[in-house]
Amino acid sequence: MGIKRQIKNYIYIKKHYPLSERTTIDPLKKNILIIDNQIPTFDKDSGSNRITEIAKFLAKDFNVFLMGWQKPIPKSDERKYIQNFNRHNVTVYTPFINGYGIVRGKKYFLDQLIPDLDFVWCHRPDAFEHYLSFFRKKAPKAKIIYDMVDIHFLRMERGLALDYDEKLAAEIEHYKYIETQLSSKADKVVVISDKEKKLMTDFVDESKLFTISNVHNLKIKSEEVPEYEERNHLFFVGSFYHLPNVDAVTFLHEKIMPLVWQSLPNLKVYIIGQEPPEEILKMNSDLFQIKGFVEDLTPYYENCIASISPLRYGAGVKGKIGQAFEYMLPVVTTTIGAEGMFLNNKETALISGNDDHQAFAHNIIELCTNASVWSTLHRNSEKAIFPFTIEFQKDELFRLLS
To answer: Strands, E, within 154-256: which ranges?
Structure first.
């Protein structure tokens, strides 16, 4: 690092830090270091929300440390995410200037932790690939956990089948190497659904595989839920960094909603998610509103008729669907959207084929015009969410960390 960059970083840290607060370390508890690509942003993407909930739960019984590895200096606008972890006694890496005016960064943070580490939890394939050899050498006693989040190469191959892209094809080979070969070098591998666990048995010994899905809990009581008659319109939520979401919104705009608007000409759709690309922004209209990132989604969960997820490809478990169940809100989705979520058509969600825009449009119309269908899905939300509660998953978490 050049001297100018060092000075610039020093000034930035001096101006904006500390970002984190002191947490309590219990010498009698085991130590877990969670490494992610970035400091998880619980309100922006499903994977971040999942690892945030897991870290908060584990901090009750372990000393939990967290580090975003791709940025040496977290930005000041990440303060709210760091402090959210701190409130639940999770220690987040941030650099600091000590009493002698020396910047202490990632190397210092890791040097203090490594001698006492029991587990290194690598969240996402990039973090696992980057740190596997490092911790094998520096912390040989620590168990290395590779948390896949979803099977990336599977998701990408499904996307490639819809639209071939040479760059994506090369990327698939990279992730396939990590997920089918390098993964076997982990002590334990976390998958997000039993379906993906079954697929991974071709590459990793089954005794190493553990299913830890998304974590969701009801956030509203049934008696507090606004009635069907009080609701209007639909919404889609998902980060546009995730290409399946770009495809889903395009599919919704071009194929599904034109059919819906023939029957319900005033029905609006709100499209929510960070960083919508230009191709999505161009779709904005009074009936198809591109909202971008929305910090508080509660008004949409409480006032809309449904959350819709017309995903045509992807992998893993879909956080956007679980989050709707947290508010007992009905969901309209596809087979790929329902994958790994234990959902039954017309009981816990309305589900159509991945490319069947006519069936998806029919399901929207039915839900928007039939109070009985809406009430059935609403009542069954608690059943749909139960497999994703901490209560349901805690035994598997403790088995993983035994």
So the answer is: 188-191, 209-211, 234-237
